[in-house]
Amino acid sequence: MNTKKLSFYELTGAKSPIHKLMDPVLSRVLHLNKLNDVYQRITEPGLSDVEFIDRVLKTMKIDVNLSDADYSLIPKEGPCVVTCNHPTGTLEGLILARLFKTMRPDMKILANSRVELVPELDDLFIHVDTMGENANGNGNVRGLVRAIKHVKNGGMLLIFPAGAVSKINLKKGRICDPQWQNGVARIIRKTNAPVLPLHIDGNSGPLFQIASFFSPSVRIAMMPRMLTRQVGRKVTVRIGYPVMAEKLRGFSTDEEVMAYLRSKTYMLRDRLMNRLFKNRMKNRKLKTISAPVAPSVLSREIAKLKADDKMLSIGNFDVYVAESHQIPHLLLELGRLREETFRAVGEGTGDVIDITSHDAYYLHLFSWDREKKRIVGAYRLGKTDEIIEKYGIDGVYSSELFDYKAEFFEKLRPGSLELGRSFIVKDYQGQYLSLLSLWRGISQYLLRNPQYRYLYGPVSISSDYTAISRQLMCRFLLDTYGDDELQDLVHARVPMNFKSERSISPYAELEFPEDITELSEMIRDIEIDHKSIPILVKQYLKLGGKIIAFNIDKAFNETADGLLLMDFYNINEKSMNKLMGKENVVLYREKIKQLEMEDVEVEQLEVKIA
Q: What does the alpha-carbon distance between residue 456 and residue 490 come to, in Å, rounded to a whole number?
C-alpha cells in the first residue's frame, strides 16, 4: 500500500520551519487528514488514472449529468483544445478526465504542478507552475512546449484558462472566473486547433471566498477542505459547439480571443430547461384536442373545389387556396392541426381547436398529400383591402397584437396580404417539399393577384426558448432587420421588456452578435436541445423580410410575435426563380410595373381634380 501522505507545506510550497511545526494542526483544520485517509483506502499499485478517478468519484458520491446531445459534440479524433471554467479547483479536472478519456484516451490536462503530489494522475497532466517561484521559469516553458506539441500531434488538451479558482468579484457582485489568461490564446493560435467550450457547475463555499482575498497560498491551502465539501454533489456539465480556428483568427488580440471564449463558456451556464415554460404548460388547463376529421370527408371537399382554386402540384403535394364556406370540414381539421402543432413547441390556445372569428373571412392556403390523403401544412391569408373596407383595421387579425396607424397600410400600395397561423404537420417537418410547396402556392396566388405586393403578419418565437435566447433574437432582429420609418406607425400592444446584453446574462457578459450566423451559434449553444433560430424566421429574412415590432401574445402562451413585412417584388432573383419559375417571374414583374403605372396615372388624375 502507498503510505505517502500529503502535508500542508508540500501543498502550499511553504518552507518556513513554523509551517512544518504546525503541519499536524493545519492538516486537520484544512481536512488534509480526511483526504489522506481516503487516498490510503482507494489507492493500490498498478491503478490507471481512469481507475483511480473512478474510485475517487465513487467514494465522494459524485453524480455527473451530461446530456447525450452534448456528449456527441466531443470531437472523436484530431487536435482539440477544451476550455472550461474553474469553480472548485480539483473536482472538475477529475470529472472531465473521466468523461473524456472514454472517447479520447489521448486527453491531457494542463494543470498546476502541485498535482504531481498525486502520482496516479501523473500521466494525465502536463504540469506548469502558475503561482510559485518558477512561474516564469524553464519548467513552465517545457510544459507549454509539451502542451503545444501534444495538440499538434492530434491530441486533446483541457485547459482552465483562469489559472485560478472562481472567486467573488465585488464589482460585479458574483462568483466567477477571473479574467482568462492571454497565454492560452497563444497555445490555440500555434496549434490551429478547434476550441471546445465547456461549463461545469460548482461552488467553492464561503470560507474559500473569504480566503480568496488573501494570498494564493491561502487559497491553495483551502483546496482540500473545498474538495471534501463536494461530497454527494450533483454536477452538470454542458458542452458547446466547437469554435473553429478560422473564427478565432478574426480577432485582433489574444485578449479578445479569450474574452470571446470565456463568454462562450459562461453562455452554457444559462443553458437550462425553461422551467417557467414547463411549469406554465403543466398549470395551464389544456383541453383535449378534437378528434381528426376522416380523410374521406376531406377528400370529398377537396374534390369539389374549382379548378382555379388549385395553385399547383409539386411531387405528391397539391396546393389549394379556398374560402371557409368551401371547406367547412377541412377548416376544422386545419384548426385541429394548428393546435396540435403549436402545442408541441410551447404555443397553442389550450382549446380543443385553434379557430378564430377571422377564419370565416380569411382565405386558407393548404398543401395536400394526395397519396396519403393528409394535410401537409397551411397558411391563413387575409386580403387587407377587403378586410379593412368591411371590418375596419380591427378586422385584421394582427391588430389584436399590434396597434396600426392607417398610414401603415397606405404605404403598402398597391396592396397587401396578411399571412398567419402557418404550420407544417410534425410528420412532414424537415422535408424539403413541405415548406416549398406552401411558398410556391403563395407565389402562384400573388402571380394571379399581383396587386398584393406586400406580405405581412406575425412570426413566432415560442416560450419553448429560454428567456435569454428570446431577448437576444428579438433585439437582434429589431436592430438589424428593422425599419425605422414603419416602426413609428406600429406599436406592440404588449411590448417586450428589453434588457441590455450584460443584464441578460451577467456571467457570460455577452457582446451583441454581429450577424445572423453568430446569433444562430449563440442560440444553439444556449438551448439545451441545441435548436437555433426558428426556421421560418430564417426563411423570411433570406427573402428580404423586415421585423417591425415584437409583441407578447398572452393568449398564445406568452409567444413573442414579431411583425414581419416583406416586399415580394424585391425578393432576390434566385429565390424568385425558385418560387415562381423564370418565365413567371418575368410575367409577375411586368404586372407589377403595369400596376405602378396605373397608380401614377390615378395620382396625377387626383391632382388635376384637386
A: 12
Asked if residues 563 and 549 have their Cβ atoms less than 8 Å apart, the reply is yes
Residue 370 has, within 13 A of its CA and on its CB side, a CA count of 12
Q: How many CB atoms lie within 10 A of CB 103?
A: 14
Q: What is the pLDDT of residues 580-608, one digit of tens each?
A: 999 999 999 999 999 888 876 666 666 66
- C-alpha cell belonging to residue 355: 379557430
| Contacts by residues 578-586 (CB-CB < 8 Å, ≥ 24 positions apart) | 578/436, 579/439, 579/440, 579/442, 579/443, 580/440, 580/443, 580/444, 580/447, 584/443, 584/447
Residue with cell 477544451: 82
Asked if residue 558 lies in contact with residue 552, where contact means CB atoms within 8 angstroms, the answer is yes
pLDDT by residue (tens digit) across 115-124? 556 778 888 9
Name which residue leads in pLDDT, 504 or 403: 403
Q: Which residues contact 512 (CB under 8 A, 6 or more apart)?
A: 475, 476, 479, 501
Grid coordinates representing 486 are 414603419
How far apart are the C-alpha atoms of 548 and 533, rounded to whole Å? 18
Residue 15: how many other CB atoms lie within 10 Å: 8
pLDDT at residue 229, as a whole number: 67
Residue range 301-326: average pLDDT?
A: 98
Amino acid letter for position 281:
M
pLDDT at position 467 is: 83
- Are the C-beta atoms of residues 324 and 445 closer than 8 Å to each other? no
Residues near 323 by beta carbon (within 8 Å), at least 6 away in sequence: 363, 364
Distance CA 200, CA 31 (A): 24
C-alpha 50: how far from chain center:
33
Under DSSP, the state recorded for 171 is T
Q: Report whether pLDDT(328) > 70.
A: yes
pLDDT, one tens digit per residue, over 452-461 is: 999 999 999 9
Task: Give the per-residue pLDDT at 172.
Answer: 67
Contact between residue 381 and residue 419 where contact means Cβ atoms under 8 Å apart: yes
Measured distance CA(193)–CA(64) in Å, rounded: 27
Asked whether the whole model's pTM tops 0.90, one would answer: no
Query: What are 407-422's pLDDT values in tens digits?
Result: 999 999 899 999 999 9
User: Which domains are assigned to the chain?
Assistant: 62-212+230-269 (3.40.1130.10), 279-597 (3.40.630.30)
> Do 211 and 166 form a contact (C-beta atoms < 8 A)?
no
Q: Rounded to 5 degrees, what angle do the CA atoms 384, 390, 391 make?
A: 80
Sheet with 559-567, edge to edge strand ranges = 310-314, 317-323, 363-369, 374-383, 416-424, 454-461, 559-567, 546-553
For residue 203, the SS3 value is: coil
